[in-house]
Structures are given as C-alpha cells and as structure tokens.
Amino acid sequence: MYPKTFKWWYWLEFGTAGRQDADAPYKSAHSGTYPIDPVNAHALHFEVGGQSRFAFHVDHPGIRPRLIYRSARTEILDFAKLTIAGSLKDGVNIASLRTALASVIMPYALMRMGENLEAAAPGVKTSNNNPFK
C-alpha cells in the first residue's frame, strides 16, 4: 500500500476525524472526537493561545483536512502534461520521460505542496528528508 512514513501527510491531506477521512488511505476508527492519553508520562503537555497546559486526558476533535495536494492537483497535472508533451517532441524516449518526471515534475509538485503546507499549517513540520529520492 503506502509507506507508513507518509501517514503524517495523509493526516494533513484528509484529516483524522472519522467523518472527514472517508477518502483517506489510512482510516480512523472514530466518528468524531478521539481520546488522547499520556503513554510515556503522567500528563499531556500542550499550548493553547500561548499558554502552557497539562491534562491527564483529552478528547481531540481531530485534524481538519488541509488539502495540501488536492488544492494544487489541477495545476500540478497541467504542468506535468506540458512537461511530458515537451519531452515527447522527438518521439517516445524513456530516458527523457524519466528526466522530466524526476528532475522537473516532481520538484515542481513538491514545491507547490510545500507552499500549500506552509500556508495551511505554518511551521508545523520541517524536514530535510525527501521521501521521493
């Protein structure tokens, strides 16, 4: 199926509350809120409005879908079509298709999704790991 390392991205794209994730590759077992309890500590620690909070239990409403890919999908696919068409101008060549996908289309898609992620959830996650390499 999908690599487990992508789970975080699916949660952002599709959300985690049961009614929100009908199309998600990873289904949640809840229909609304879900419980979060401490595992390796006595209490949960989080911030609300800049204030530090502690709790022994939280009923989380879920992560809302952020549409990191789906909001840019049409633009990415249009770019891919133009790029692939350009790489086929001298006939079908696997090497030129591979180059177009790996060196042009994928970096463009990652850039657009990165822009959407920063706009929808600023500062949520930074990583130097590119799962596509």
Description:
This protein has 133 residues and is an alpha+beta fold. The chain folds into two domains: 4-60, no CATH class; 73-120. Helix content is 38%, strand content 12%. The protein is built from three helices and four strands; from the N terminus they run αββββαα. The protein has helices at residues 7-14, 73-87, 94-120; strands at 34-36, 44-48, 51-55, 58-60. The strands form two sheets. A two-stranded antiparallel sheet has the order 1-4. A hairpin with a 2-residue loop joins strand 2 (44-48) and strand 3. Helix 2 (73-87) runs antiparallel to helix 3. The radius of gyration is 19 Å and the shape is elongated. The protein starts with 6 loop residues before the first helix and ends in a 13-residue tail after the last helix. The model is unreliable at 129-133 (pLDDT under 50).
Shape summary? elongated
- How many domains comprise the coordinates? 2
Structural class by secondary-structure content:
alpha+beta
Low-confidence stretches: 129-133
- Total strand count, please? 4
Query: Largest sheet, if any?
Result: 2 strands, antiparallel
Q: Considering DSSP H and I runs of 4 or more, what fraction of the residues is helical? A: 25-40%
Number of helices: 3
Q: Could you give the topology of this structure?
A:
Layout: H1 7-14, E1 34-36, E2 44-48, E3 51-55, E4 58-60, H2 73-87, H3 94-120
Antiparallel strand pairs: 1-4, 2-3
Helix pairs in contact: 2-3
Which structural traits does this protein have?
single chain, 133 residues, alpha+beta, 2 domains, two-stranded antiparallel sheet, 38% helix, elongated, disordered C terminus
